[in-house]
Write a sequence for this structure.
């Protein structure tokens, strides 16, 4: 049978992003995620037709998914949307950084007649909730339009949404992108409406007090609990979480460990040079997107803050040059003035080559990182001659080999460029308050992620005190997951260990993690049912609004965590 | 809770009390007449042979906000080696010496007997973040100064000569951001820095596209400050900071605002040590402290804080972004630069002050010289511009240096001789008294900030913020036994905050949260002006105007000071 050796990239797709708010236990999510996108030519080479299944195998595991022919060319590269299927084949090793290798993995792909594993196959203990629709509620009552609503989906934190509310129901979301609309409009879908505790292998409904008591008992009895998540909730909740982790002597880590943790490692080495998005909008005449695809992951970024935005000095798209550096020609790449296709895992080399040119050195090769040196020189020239340049980068450089070192080199590049002109760097942050999780963690402990409290004071050893490593190595004996879904997004090896220990989940929705947990506590959706502070990708703090009442009996993360903290303190007395 | 502090040597300069043995009564968080205390119920603190002072006030310390947090993230090494463990039921944990975590900053100040601090530089768009951190700073009352010098909307009003709009926009901003005072940093510099320019900008240079000079920015802010009857003056980090020859710019800045306030202060020049350099380059750098002190001695409208450096690793962080970029070329290690749309910029560079370095020696001397040459201690405040000159935990050492010529001489033995030759410190004999110390660390900052009715003294009705030090002025010769002075100020016997004992024998025994003090005006900002601001805001900013202002509920404990 034909098999092809390809390089695997995993990450967000627009469909994946939209379905997570409708529900991860749905057919729609399954169909958006259990697939691999292949270059049309590779697709033909494998003798595939639409609907065929393929087996994807790597050094770390194998999985069967549906084969999809891409609309665009990306020979040699296979893409699987982030999710439990991708997790079976990615490289769990973090190489001391906390970040598993989620992009740029060598795989071999061949046609198969085997079935695609479903949720039950992947996670035998998974709980299928009875109803995932709206809770009973009334849309009758006064209709009002709430203006300047802050969107709680991605790190763009767009704050100009207009939401129409009828009674206690959101009926229309204006000005938001597809992801934002989906999040807010579907806020009431797939909800957890009661607390649950697992009994004899089955999740059973309990009252809140019982669930809190059970959760507190698990945490207090654990020698070393992990408290993980935090990027999809308010800073207020994060602060209580930090106090809880400190009191328990556990480990506090946030989801930046698997997104921009390497950014922090880079900053620790060299610092950074940055600005808020408004400086970019008003001034930038050169905008570079490196390893990120805002059209899919941050849809309004281009219009509000970057390429297409109306600024004071750079007034429109005409006044700006746009460059995209990526391993495949993404949607964003198609609207760029200059696209550089880089070989997977070679970002460090390209950044070093650019630094060399900026510093006046010659390069004695024809190609670096698969890019002709002439092209690299042209890019360096564009950078040095810009009046105000900006480099946005995403998970395409944090998740590949090199990780924090890639970022360090890119930050150094921007620092070097400031000898010539004004140049800033901005990470494209994913979850709407992942920056808040970093900020609160840093001001409370001194460290932005992977904080260990075992000795009674904060310590930080990425690669040892980071959640993926703790789970890969089976170093924790209980876990509290707040507003996150590691079962869907951690390497299979880590998930396997996570499922062996008592697991508490606080989440508004039936995530995969909630569905396999020991204790499940429902919470209200921040930015829809609860107010609070969140930090935009450029660290501007904004106030999330409350639009409707949460379902009856459902409290905010902050309130639940405060109850849990009180109960823990009581048990310790 | 009632307290009676008995028989201590009381130093309370705002009430003219200089070491008299007195009893201090505390009831419901305030100072009361000792006769009001029910001795059978009250906790009695025997302070015989001890020093009793009002709680210390640091009017310029970078302990919270976006750049401090960036400094924390950039400096994990500072956090690995300095930490405090959790004490369950008593206090939280924390790490960091130069950029301590918020809780630790509060505990460390309290352990030294400090009870009020001002975070001196917050750009409006990032002030929500600053307040979030201040909410997590325990043990202290807090003030926040608002960075306004490079604010695009204000500069437009100023360039149009529309002082009405200028004034009302400032009112709106101070109230909306829950801030206390106007801060100007290298006035106007963030404008050219948007294009990477502006290093070395002088007081009369033009700022394009506004056609304004730093002079006009400073003078107009000072005038509005006076008109609004703000409790503090404008708080100014002068142009050309850290550049040889800059004492002239400093003098020009001070002179520009003379006469704006009748018989009162009209400017506070902050961390003046960094702005008191004579010479044309680093090679012929000399101390300019005499020039600065001379001006301040002859004029009544200028107050200073000193920005004393101490040797060792510091982290420099300031809204003077071009200066930090220049410093990065000297230090060549790490550099963070950040810009906030339409408002400000900032930079962070870790830096090591070395004893044998000529420039660092001169810097060290200048700070002490200013403290010792300004005759009236009510005009000069002890600060390290934490963490720029040194961490605030060096205050005990600096107090000992001010009180002992011998101690200064001990240290000068280890310094650059070339540097000492270009300084006047070796020839200064003055030694501070305990009364002077109480002025420059308590009474004067309270007075200059305008919080002296309820802070910085131990008279009836004042907030019961008190420090008791294990130091007997009748037994210790401060000049000879400076080690004892340093130890005594390092750890209080008791720190009392809002009437509660929060530190005992140098250890935190209770965590409390102080107030955040913000100004509110009797006069309301003109709604017409606010509408105009909103229109400009829509054009320039990437957030909605309605999401800009901070609500009262976002502050843990908010206290308004009404002015006007």
């Amino acid at each position: 049978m034909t098999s092809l050796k390809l390089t695997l990239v995993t990450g967000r797709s627009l469909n994946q992003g939209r379905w997570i708010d409708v529900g991860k236990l749905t057919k729609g999510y399954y169909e958006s995620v259990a697939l691999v996108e292949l270059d049309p030519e590779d697709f033909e080479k494998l003798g595939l037709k639409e609907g065929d299944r393929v087996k994807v195998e790597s050094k770390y595991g194998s999985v069967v998914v549906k084969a999809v022919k891409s609309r665009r060319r990306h020979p040699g590269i296979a893409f699987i949307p982030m999710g439990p299927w991708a997790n079976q084949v990615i490289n769990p090793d973090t190489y001391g950084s906390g970040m598993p290798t989620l992009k740029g993995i060598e795989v071999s792909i061949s046609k198969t007649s085997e079935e695609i594993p479903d949720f039950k196959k992947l996670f035998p203990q998974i709980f299928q909730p009875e109803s995932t629709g709206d809770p009973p509620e009334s849309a009758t009552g006064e209709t009002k339009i709430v203006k300047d609503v802050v969107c709680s989906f991605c790190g763009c934190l767009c704050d100009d949404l207009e939401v129409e509310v009828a009674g206690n129901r959101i009926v229309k979301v204006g000005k938001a992108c597809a992801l934002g609309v989906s999040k807010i409009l579907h806020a009431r879908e797939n909800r957890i409406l009661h607390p649950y505790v697992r009994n004899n292998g089955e999740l059973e409904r309990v009252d809140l007090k019982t669930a809190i008591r059970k959760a507190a008992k698990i945490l207090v009895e654990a020698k070393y609990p992990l408290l993980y998540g935090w990027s999809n909730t308010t800073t207020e909740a994060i602060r209580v979480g930090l106090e809880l982790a400190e009191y328990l002597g556990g480990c506090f880590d946030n989801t930046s460990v698997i997104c921009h943790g390497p950014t922090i490692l880079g900053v620790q080495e060299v610092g950074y040079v940055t600005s808020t998005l408004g400086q970019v909008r008003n001034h930038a005449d050169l905008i570079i997107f490196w390893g990120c695809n805002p059209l899919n992951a941050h849809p309004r970024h281009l219009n509000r803050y970057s390429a297409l935005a109306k600024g004071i000095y750079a007034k429109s798209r005409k006044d700006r040059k746009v460059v995209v550096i990526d391993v495949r020609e993404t949607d964003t790449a198609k609207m760029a003035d200059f696209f550089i296709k880089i070989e997977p895992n070679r970002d460090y080399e390209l950044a070093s080559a650019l630094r060399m040119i900026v510093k006046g050195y010659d390069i004695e090769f024809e190609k670096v990182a698969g890019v002709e040196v002439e092209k690299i020189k042209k890019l360096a020239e564009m950078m040095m001659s810009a009046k105000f340049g900006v480099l946005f980068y995403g998970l395409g450089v944090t998740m590949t080999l090199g990780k924090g070192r890639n970022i360090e080199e890119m930050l150094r590049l921007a620092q070097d460029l400031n000898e010539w002109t004004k140049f800033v760097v901005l990470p494209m942050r994913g979850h709407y308050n992942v920056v808040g999780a970093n900020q609160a963690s840093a001001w409370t402990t001194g460290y932005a992620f992977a904080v260990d409290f075992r000795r009674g004071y904060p310590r930080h050893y990425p690669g040892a005190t980071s959640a993926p490593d703790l789970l890969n190595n089976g170093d924790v004996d209980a876990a509290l997951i707040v507003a996150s879904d590691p079962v869907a997004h951690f390497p299979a090896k880590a998930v396997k260990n996570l499922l062996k220990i008592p697991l508490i989940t606080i989440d508004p929705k039936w995530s995969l993690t909630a569905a396999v947990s020991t204790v499940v506590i429902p919470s209200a959706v921040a930015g829809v049912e609860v107010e609070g502070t969140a930090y935009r990708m450029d660290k501007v703090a904004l106030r999330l609004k409350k639009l409707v009442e949460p379902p009856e009996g459902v409290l905010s993360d902050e309130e639940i965590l405060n109850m849990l903290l009180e109960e823990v303190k009581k048990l310790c007395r | 809770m009632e307290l009676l502090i008995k028989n201590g040597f009381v130093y309370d300069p705002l009430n003219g009390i200089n070491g008299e043995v007195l009893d201090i009564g505390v009831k419901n968080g305030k100072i009361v007449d000792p006769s009001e205390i029910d001795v059978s119920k009250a906790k009695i603190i025997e302070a015989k042979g001890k020093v009793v002072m009002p709680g210390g006030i640091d009017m310029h310390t970078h302990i919270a906000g976006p750049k401090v947090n960036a400094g924390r993230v950039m400096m994990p090494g500072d956090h690995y080696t300095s930490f405090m463990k959790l004490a369950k039921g008593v206090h939280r944990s924390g790490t960091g010496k130069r950029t301590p975590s918020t809780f630790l900053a509060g505990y460390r100040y309290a352990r030294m007997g400090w009870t009020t601090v001002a975070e001196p530089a917050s750009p409006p768009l990032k002030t929500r973040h600053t307040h979030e951190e201040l909410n997590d700073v325990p043990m202290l009352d807090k003030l926040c100064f608002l960075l306004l010098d490079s604010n695009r909307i204000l500069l437009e009003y100023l360039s149009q000569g529309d002082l009405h709009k200028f004034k009302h926009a400032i009112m709106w901003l101070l109230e909306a951001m829950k801030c206390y005072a106007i801060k100007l940093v290298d006035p106007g510099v963030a404008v050219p820095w948007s294009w990477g320019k502006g290093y070395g900008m002088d007081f009369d240079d033009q700022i394009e596209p506004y056609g304004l000079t730093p002079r006009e920015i400073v003078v107009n802010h000072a005038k509005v400050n006076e008109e609004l009857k703000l409790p503090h003056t404008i708080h100014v980090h002068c142009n050309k900071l850290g550049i040889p020859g800059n004492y002239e710019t400093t003098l020009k800045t001070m002179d520009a605002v003379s006469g704006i306030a009748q018989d009162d202060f009209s400017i506070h020049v902050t961390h003046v040590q960094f702005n008191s350099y004579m010479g044309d380059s680093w090679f012929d750098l000399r101390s300019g402290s005499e020039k600065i002190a001379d001006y301040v001695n002859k004029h009544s409208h200028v107050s200073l804080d000193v920005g004393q450096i101490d040797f060792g690793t510091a982290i420099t962080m300031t809204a003077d972004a071009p200066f930090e970029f220049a410093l990065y070329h000297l230090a060549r290690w790490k550099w963070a630069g950040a810009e906030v749309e339409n408002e400000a910029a900032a930079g962070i560079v870790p830096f090591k002050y070395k004893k044998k370095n000529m420039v660092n020696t001169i810097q060290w001397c200048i700070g002490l010289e200013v403290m010792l040459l300004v005759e009236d201690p009510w005009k000069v405040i002890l600060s390290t511009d934490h963490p720029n000159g040194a961490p605030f935990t060096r205050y005990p050492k600096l107090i000992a240096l001010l009180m002992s010529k011998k101690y200064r001489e001990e240290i000068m033995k280890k310094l650059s001789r070339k540097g000492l030759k270009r300084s006047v410190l070796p020839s200064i004999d003055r030694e501070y008294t305990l009364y002077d110390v109480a002025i420059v660390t308590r009474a004067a900052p309270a007075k200059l900030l305008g919080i002296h009715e309820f802070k910085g003294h131990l008279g009836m009705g004042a907030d019961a913020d008190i420090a008791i030090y294990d130091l007997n002025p009748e037994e210790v010769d401060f000049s000879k036994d400076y080690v004892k002075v340093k130890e005594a100020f390092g750890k209080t016997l008791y720190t009392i905050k809002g009437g509660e004992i929060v530190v005992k024998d140098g250890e935190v025994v209770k965590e409390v949260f102080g107030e955040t003090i913000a100004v509110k005006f009797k006069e309301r900002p003109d709604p017409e002006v606010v509408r105009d601001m909103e229109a400009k805001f829509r054009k320039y900013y990437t957030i909605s105007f309605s999401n800009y202002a901070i609500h009262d509920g976002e502050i843990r404990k908010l206290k308004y000071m009404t002015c006007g």
Remarks:
- The first strand of chain A starts at residue 3 and ends at 11.
- Chain A has three domains: 3-122, 196-258+433-525+553-572, 261-427.
